[in-house]
Automatic annotation (TrEMBL):
SUPFAM superfamilies in UniProt: MetI-like
Topology term for the membrane: Multi-pass membrane protein
UniProt keyword annotation of Electron transport present: no
Keyword list, A-Z: Cell membrane, Membrane, Transmembrane, Transmembrane helix, Transport
Protein species of origin: Thioclava indica
Descriptive protein name: Acriflavin resistance protein
């Protein structure tokens, strides 16, 4: 009896490690999110209103959402394709085993390299006076800006986002590729399947939930990025995060409650993308098991 009571008293101690994480999540994630959601339905005098959400259908705001969606889709698709190719080469291809460690380490660092440092790195590399731009112009007589390239544009921002999207794809899809059992490929080979048939009939259907889930995650990751875009393009490219910043902190366009509505729309879109990722991730893990 005494041992049972002692065990019951010790049981709550197993949850002590969750307290800092829970407090952090509540203070810096849940409460700010709820504050944004409530603010999206408030007027300037504090009353309840749908006007802020109705204002989201202004042409300029709809255009900013559309630009953000296009950039997010482009970086998600290209990030998935390139990242999958690299991860497959490392795990299943003929690359030396010693390359896996450096690639995974670099991916872990690069997937978190964003914001002002990333924007500065690309400006110093592909800006009008960047290293690559100057080398191509002086050594080869090729001016990339004279041929239509512009780092402060949709294409330039997409390339910049791919710097952290591709490594994130590598980190996420590598465990799924490791989960492909060698016996499956051997069985397919014994039955007369070619390498292409194995990937089309066996491997890709198994990886499909993971691929779609990672695509949704990369979309959400790109859609919510603001520091890199603002530091790189300023106000020259009106994506949703920059429009939101202008409404909350701007001197001319300041309308905090419209900014809350913009943030609410971003929460809905990224929330759907993350839900799709989690759902497909669970399905893929069940299938591999």
């Amino acid at each position: 009896m005494a041992d049972t009571l002692a065990a019951r008293r010790r049981l709550p101690l197993t949850w002590v490690g969750m307290v800092p994480f829970t407090a952090f999540a509540v203070l810096f994630l849940l409460l700010p999110t709820m504050y944004i959601v409530v603010g999206a339905f408030r007027s300037a005098d504090g009353g309840f209103t749908f006007e802020n959400l109705v204002n989201l259908f202004q042409p300029s705001i709809l255009a900013s959402y559309w630009i953000s969606i296009k950039i997010s889709l482009a970086t998600a698709v290209f990030g998935c394709l390139i990242g999958f190719a690299i991860a497959a080469a490392v795990t299943l291809g003929g690359l030396p085993n010693w390359l896996r460690g450096p690639i995974m380490t670099f991916s872990g660092v690069a997937s978190n390299f964003a914001g002002v440092p990333l924007a500065f790195a690309f400006l110093a590399t592909l800006g009008r006076l960047g290293l690559v731009t100057v080398v191509l112009k002086q050594w080869f007589g090729f001016n990339i800006y004279a041929h239509g390239f512009n780092l402060l544009s949709f294409f330039g921002l997409t390339i910049t986002y791919l710097f952290f999207q591709i490594p994130l794809m590598i980190l996420i899809i590598t465990p799924a590729l490791d989960g492909l059992k060698r016996e499956w490929k051997e069985a397919a080979s014994i039955l007369g399947a070619s390498g292409f048939q194995y990937w089309r009939i066996v491997a890709l259907p198994i990886l499909w939930p993971s691929l779609l889930g990672t695509l949704a995650l990369l979309f959400a990751n790109s859609f919510g990025a603001v520091a890199t875009a603002y530091a790189l393009t300023g106000s020259s490219l009106s994506i949703v995060p920059i429009m939101l910043y202008a409404q909350i902190r701007g001197d001319v366009l300041q309308d905090p409650h419209l900014g809350y509505a913009l943030a609410f729309g971003m929460i809905v879109i990224t929330g759907i993308a993350n839900f799709v990722y989690v759902w497909l991730r669970v399905r893929s893990e069940r299938w591999v098991k």
